[in-house]
Amino acid sequence: MPIKTALVPILSALLLSTLVFARTPAPAGARVYIISPADGDTVSSPVTVRFGLSGMGVAPAGTDKEKTGHHHLLIDVEGLPDLEKPLISDERHRHFGGGQTEVTVELPPGKHTLQLILGDKVHIPHDPPVISDKITISVK
Ligand SMILES: [Cu+2]
How far, in Å, is the centroid of ligand 1 from the Cα of 83? Predict the structure, then answer.
């Protein structure tokens, strides 16, 4: 097989992976943050968490529009999820693909961490990733 022919599947695979996993650029200075509760707060469950975003807009998942994304709330997640792939969806990785900017969650008594991360139309974090500070709250 000529070398050029042999390269076709490799190049196609590379192109495909770029298309599938290309990260959406985030504008410089974009910032996501938790409006409330505040870091160190003691609260009762259920807890309403309010999401803040500046320098970008909120758009529902699936929306192909520059400088937008939707919120994801990480609850008691250690470290950071894989930033190259769509964020997983489970009890600890909540998606707000409808464009919601707050949620009320039931949390058991004790300490919990909360962190926001913005995802693009296919739930992949932006480049650079837009991630909030992680806060710790105590639930009574
Ligand atoms: Cu999502």
Answer: 12
